[in-house]
Design brief:
The protein is mainly α. The protein contains nine helices and two strands; from the N terminus they run αββαααααααα. It has a two-stranded antiparallel sheet. A hairpin with a 2-residue loop joins strand 1 and strand 2. The chain is globular.
Length: 164
């Protein structure tokens, strides 16, 4: 991504998950060309303030799940999102539900289940380790949410993916 934007003549300052920071002269590099370059790489420019907030919520959830130790253990997810994004959680929750058709909590559960699937496929971790890492209260709780989201038990998932 960085190289593509630099080829356009942009000074790319930072590229992080979900965000690119760059300096450029809009008279020399039109937004349409930047958008086209990003689109070819599978990205898009977010102009809408509300859409930016939605993407921030998703990004913070991914960060929270990818770096479980970085989240304060006693902090609720709602408080974490509110602090990281700097917007009242009630607003975040309403906006997310309206735009995505799902609550933040259900989105978080779906993302956790995806992390469980990844761990089952690519790691040699026990269910207890996975449950602890993803902040589940128990393996039973993890198993119930897994079945609710996927429609199958963890054992069925393992069999279908030849993990047994």
């Amino acid at each position: 991504m960085r190289e593509d934007l630099e080829k356009l003549g942009m000074e790319v300052l930072d590229v992080t998950l979900g965000r690119v920071e760059a300096n450029y002269d809009p008279e020399q590099i039109p937004d349409a060309l930047i958008g086209e370059t990003l689109e070819k790489a599978g990205f898009e420019i977010l102009q809408d303030k509300e859409q930016k907030i939605i993407e921030q919520i998703k990004l913070q959830i991914l960060r929270m799940l990818n770096n479980p130790g970085s989240k304060k253990l006693s902090m609720k997810n709602s408080k974490y999102l509110e602090e990281e994004i700097g917007v009242n959680y009630g607003y975040l929750s309403r906006l997310f539900s309206q735009q995505e058709g799902i609550t933040i909590e259900k989105y978080l559960i779906r993302q956790k289940v995806e992390k469980v699937k990844e761990a089952l496929k690519y790691e040699d971790a026990s269910l207890e380790e996975i449950a602890f890492r993803l902040d589940y209260s128990s393996v039973a709780h993890l198993s119930k949410q897994f079945k609710d989201v996927t429609g199958m038990t963890i054992t069925q998932f393992k069999k279908e993916n030849a993990l047994v």
